[in-house]
Amino acid sequence: MPHTAALLVIDMQNTLVSLAFRAAETVAAIAGLRERAKAAGVPVVTIQHRGTGVEAGTEGWRIVPELTPAAGEETVHKTSADSFLDTDLDDTLKALGVTEVVVTGFATEFCVDTTARQALSHRYDVVLVADGHTTSDRPESGEYISSERSIAHHNGIYRYMDFPGRSIRVLSSSEVDFAAP
């Protein structure tokens, strides 16, 4: 099967992006990837969460304007951190002939991580875009790891993760080449 990538844009919705660390930079990185994917004929699949604070049809549920899906682009609706669970994501990717997902979005340690790991279990290669995922903005001190450290931590995990028969890469948005395996 030939190498075929798809760009996944996970939960880049108004309410969630309003909580995000380095929101503008992350949106810009993903928007640049979307333009390059579309120019290369690579499918863009937008994943949209529905739940508390992001009820379907509300302004907070809508995808941020810079990343709103274009006509003909696939949108998958989910209700858990796993973009594959009880959705048509796997069927959509298979119908498009996808072999590798380029993962971006919100939130690093929840939906991004869970979806990337499930993609591996569904036999897709994974590119985690190092500057294309983010988490909630939180202070350096406190009970939780800082936003910046959480993002760096997950980028590090994926650099060293081994999954039999799968390719896993961590690339900056500028390094992503939609034509290369």
From TrEMBL:
Give the residue range of the signal peptide. Answer: none
The answer to keyword Ribosomal protein applying to this record is: no
**Per its record, what are the GO molecular function terms?**
hydrolase activity
**Does this UniProt record's set of keywords contain Hydrolase?**
yes
CDD domains in UniProt: nicotinamidase_related (cd01014)
Q: Which UniProt keywords apply?
A: Hydrolase
Ranges for domain Isochorismatase-like: 5-138
Stored InterPro entries = Isochorismatase-like_dom, Isochorismatase-like_hydrls, Isochorismatase-like_sf
Q: Which Pfam families match?
A: Isochorismatase
Under the heading PANTHER family, the entry gives: PEROXYUREIDOACRYLATE/UREIDOACRYLATE AMIDOHYDROLASE-RELATED
User: What name does the UniProt record give this protein?
Assistant: Cysteine hydrolase
* Source species: Streptomyces jumonjinensis
